Amino acid sequence: MRLFDPHIHMTSRTTDDYAAMRAAGVRALVEPSFWLGQPRTSVGSFVDYFDALIGWEPFRAAQFGISHHCAVALNPKEANDPRCREVLDLLPRYLVKDRVVAVGEIGYDSMTPEEDTAFAAQLALAVRHDLPVLVHTPHRDKASGTRRTLDVVRESGIAPERVVVDHLNELTVAAVLDAGCWAGFSVYPQTKMDEHRMVTLLREYGLERILVNSAADWGRSDPLKTRATADTMLASGFTTADVERVMWHNPVAFYGQSGRLDLTGPAPDIGESHEGNSIERGPRPAARTAAG
Amino acid sequence: MIDALHDTLAARLPAPQWERLGQWRRRVSESPHDVREFFPRAGREIGRGDLVGPAETGHPCRGWRTDDAARTLLLAALPQRGDDLVAELRWLYETGDAAERHAVLRSLDPLDLRADTDTLDGALPLVHDALRANDLRMVTAAVGDYTARHLPAPAWRHAVLKCVFTGIPLSAVSGLDERADPELLRMLNDFAAERTAAGRAVPPDVATFLRAHPAP
Predict the structure, then answer these.
(1) Do B167 and A279 touch (CB under 8 A)?
(2) Predicted complex ipTM exceeds 0.90
């Protein structure tokens, strides 16, 4: 089984997670930029974070045969902090990088005027850089926040099929699909969405323009929820082709709109050749680091 | 080396990509700041992957990736020399993703060897940065000929030791036989003793090297 997790924060996960994901079938993922639990107090913290997303984290993922791409943005929560707002000026530098396949996560947290400004500015950046967008919907006041999100997306002029609106549920999915956007679902151990509800939604709404992710991060979450959803689909009568469609072809189609998705091998971009031997080819011990 | 990269890319890139690289090089020679626009795009718009096949023994560009070679030609087209060139290399490295940083590191040797320029030893801080990285691609790119020529002995010995610790083959380290000194041999012998005491294997290339260089 081949899985693509279209939204997971690997920076917060361990090498054990990478090993378990690989064993479960995960071969590719996209790591959107988000907040880190602890608020950042300067633009420099974002520079280091973004640099890790286009440097260290793809290397870490490749050690487990997983292709890592990312989305870069100022997240809605920290868009409210005046110390972080200059991050918007920094983004163009990152939006031209090879492994940056989207702008995200952007959207609303508390629906403040500051969030309005950052959201609109970053939608414009996505249009300018010809990149798809990953939009986070607020956890509080979600239905109203989702409606407003779709209004802002419409006003921005971006093509709706280049936008995924994420963290949806039974009450928000219809409006997003009707608007022509992709619908993202974050399958969580307790909150957001679970795999059984997810399968019910797939029956009702079909497989087109649906993305299923684990959105695993530093909180209580599970990087194997993509696999759990795939298993639940099969147990509920969906075919392996259906699973492949939702869990692989859909994310490839969505992020492929960037023109930068590189899935040429299980571990692309890795493997410095020396005398014809690649030091990164084949499995590497999970715990091996530069500390030996 | 730059001539070899030029001729190999000319022969092996598809015509549209070679043409585009030519346009970029002309732009950069007249308007150096534009290198910052082209440098990140070189992988996806010019080419990636090995420039020379593993079977082509003796080819002067062996071990070069197409994106590294293309970026090196771009840097070679810059009009700056000396400290001004180093400043631009530093900007591109510090704002680069892994592939761009790799290319800057790979470019140091050919740029340093150009006949029309002073030595580029001012770029050593980039090598130090790469040697502190945990990303083995960076460490590997940082133990090339430029480093062999310029890195002071204490840092160079630790670079060799880091390769040994992280599984980068000693064959990747430029100038190893020429620069190996008694202190490096002591460090490698201590490493081998530590591994043996722990019941772990000494990597075969290290064992071979130590047999060929008996401790004084």
Answers:
(1) yes
(2) no
